[in-house]
């Protein structure tokens, strides 16, 4: 069997995603227990305990989620829908302990000014960062204020230099891979998440570009988190893995004797509520209780992966260069059976 390096994977003829690859431990691990492993990192100036950022979706990140993720050493990016942003403008206390806020291209200057004043990361939340108006907005914000800006999304490194030139501090990588995303079905656009990530990673390395990479969409498990980081992501962005937790906006629903919460795409009908082009779905996910348990589960899985791979730190994990490409049968063999 061939052991693939990141570069080999990047040159692979087909586009790959998380289920197509796995990590291969090649060394004797010097790690005694996973508890001694450190998952701390710095992401665009923020100290993180676990490299997790929440999706700025209306069923994932409201004020409660953002504050709790800050407590847990992660970043919650407040969604730009409903009344969340008004709540911020009307009550500055709501900005305490919040690390990032998403805005639309048409956001009011008053809001941007307030976020910049408080040194809160601004995420320009669009479906496609390869767009002149997105770049212009990023450039305007960066010229006017001393603040950090996240842009997104891209599926390939071809325009990374332009994003960096517009002043972007971080970029969300992934088009078509989100679990409630219908972009690829509706438009035919997008590539597998691993291939997207690797292409952007190598573009960054080869051109010595200074921008942080966010693996966004399609992450289903702690194992996928480990794979994304090993493919060069600085942090992962999670929608579905955090959906259904206590801290997400929305009610707990009882249906068929089980508890559920709503999870929907930012471009779903439920969010738009008008007859526009729809690129997202709406669904119910099982109620999961406190988000702290989900984050702890991911942290445990990640540290366990790192102990197999003899990695003491996230920067060691990002240097991993031994992957396999799985046949469908070997992928299925990896799943538990009843
Ligand atoms: P998940 O973690 O696989 O559920 O993916 C979450 C990601 O899906 C988000 O961070 C967005 O990048 C993306 N996304 C959210 N809403 C939509 C939508 O309506 N259409 C397409 N992509 C979406």
Notable characteristics:
338 residues; 13 helices; three-stranded antiparallel sheet; binds inosinic acid; eight-stranded parallel barrel; 33% helix; 15 strands; single chain; alpha/beta
- For the termini, the CA-CA separation is 29 Å
Shape: globular
Q: Strand sequence of the main sheet, in spatial order? A: 4-5-6-7-8-9-10-11
What portion of the residues fall into strands of 2 or more residues?
15-25%
Ligand list = inosinic acid
Could you tell me the mean pLDDT?
Answer: 95
Q: What structural category do the secondary elements indicate?
A: alpha/beta
Please give the count of helices: 13
Helix content: 25-40%
Poorly predicted runs of 5 or more residues? none
Number of DSSP strand runs: 15
List SSEs in N-to-C order: HEEEEHEHEHEHEHEHHEHEEEHEHHEH
For the biggest sheet, the summary is: 8 strands, parallel, barrel
Radius of gyration: 19 Å
Describe the 3D structure.
This protein is α/β, with parallel strands linked by helices and 338 residues long. It has 13 helices and 15 strands. It has helices spanning 6-10, 63-71, 84-90, 109-117, 132-144, 160-165, 183-187, 193-206, 222-230, 269-272, 291-308, 314-318, 328-333, and strands at residues 21-23, 41-43, 46-48, 52-54, 75-78, 100-103, 121-124, 149-154, 170-173, 212-216, 235-238, 253-255, 258-264, 282-286, 323-325. An eight-stranded parallel beta barrel has the order 4-5-6-7-8-9-10-11, surrounded by five helices. The protein has a three-stranded antiparallel β-sheet with strand order 12-13-14. Strands 1-15 form a two-stranded antiparallel sheet. The longest helix has 18 residues, at 291-308. It is globular, with a radius of gyration of 19 Å. The model has no long low-confidence stretch (mean pLDDT 95). Bound molecules: inosinic acid. Inosinic acid is lined by residues 55, 57, 153, 178-181, 183, 216-219, 237-240, 265-268, 279-280.
């Amino acid at each position: 069997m061939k052991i693939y390096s990141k570069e080999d994977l990047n040159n692979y003829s087909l586009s790959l995603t998380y289920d197509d690859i796995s990590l291969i431990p090649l060394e004797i691990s010097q790690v005694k227990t996973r508890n001694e492993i450190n998952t701390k990192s710095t992401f665009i100036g923020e100290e993180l305990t676990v490299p997790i950022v929440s999706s700025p979706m209306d069923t994932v990140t409201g004020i409660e989620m953002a504050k709790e993720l800050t407590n847990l050493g992660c970043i919650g990016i407040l969604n730009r829908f409903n009344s969340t942003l008004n709540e911020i403008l009307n009550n500055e206390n709501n900005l305490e302990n919040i690390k990032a806020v998403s805005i639309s291209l048409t956001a009011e200057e008053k809001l941007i000014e307030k976020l910049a004043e408080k040194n809160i990361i601004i995420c320009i939340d669009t479906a496609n960062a390869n767009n002149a108006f997105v770049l212009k907005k990023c450039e305007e914000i960066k010229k006017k204020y001393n603040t950090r800006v996240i842009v997104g999304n891209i599926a390939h490194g071809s325009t990374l230099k332009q994003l960096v030139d517009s002043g972007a501090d971080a970029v969300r990588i992934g088009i078509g891979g989100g679990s409630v995303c219908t972009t690829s079905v509706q438009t035919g656009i997008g590539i597998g998440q691993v291939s997207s990530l690797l292409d952007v990673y190598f573009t960054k390395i080869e051109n010595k570009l200074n921008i942080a990479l966010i693996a966004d969409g399609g992450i289903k498990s702690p194992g996928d988190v480990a794979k994304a980081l090993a493919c060069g992501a600085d942090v992962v962005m999670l929608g579905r893995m955090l959906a259904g937790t206590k801290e997400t906006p929305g009610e707990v629903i009882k249906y068929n004797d089980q508890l559920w919460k709503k999870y929907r795409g930012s471009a779903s009908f439920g969010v738009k509520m008008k007859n526009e082009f729809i690129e997202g779905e709406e669904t119910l996910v099982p109620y999961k209780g406190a988000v702290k348990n989900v984050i702890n589960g991911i942290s445990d899985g990640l540290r366990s992966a790192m102990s197999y791979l003899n990695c003491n730190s996230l920067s060691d994990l990002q240097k991993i260069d031994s992957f396999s490409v799985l046949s469908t049968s070997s992928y299925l063999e990896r799943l538990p059976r009843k």
